Amino acid sequence: MFSSFFSVLSVASTVSKAFLGYQQAAAMKAYYDAQADLAGVRARITKVQAQEDANRALRDLNENLASNVARAAAGGISPYIGSPATINAISTRYGVQDYLLAQDTARIADSMGIMEAQILRDAGDMYNQGGIIGAFADVGIGTYNIFSQTGGLDSPFYNTGSILNPTASTVVGGTVIRGQG
Fold this sequence. Notes:
- The chain has 181 residues and is mainly alpha-helical.
- The protein has helices at residues 2-74, 83-149, and strands at 170-172, 175-177.
- 12% of the residues are buried.
């Protein structure tokens, strides 16, 4: 009586453990997927900030060039030859460098965000697969333990003419039905 009760309790415990392991893996996958989404958002924010920096670099360059041209013209010299032109060329060089650096930063931030998100999604998938495999392993180990604790092949539970042992006899309504072995 108690043996069958504890066997049923053991089966329920094994199934519960497997189910909870699977649920934990699914929750971790959801966590990693959320982290991946967050990494994508952070990358987009960094990309937008870098693009704003690029626009700011062009705006500053435009202001510097306009200021240089205005100063030269106010001084009565041509802003397009000589020293004013050299100053504008140097300003343009540094302004374009700042712009290109900011554009590169935007591209790198975007690429890094995509890679980080994919790594996190892959981690979630691996965790989920591990949870499924762990659940099956828990059921297998639990089944083996229950089977060995109830007497294994010599168990009265096994020798009942079930699919596990078709050669055993089964009692149905007081009639003994012999197995096929």
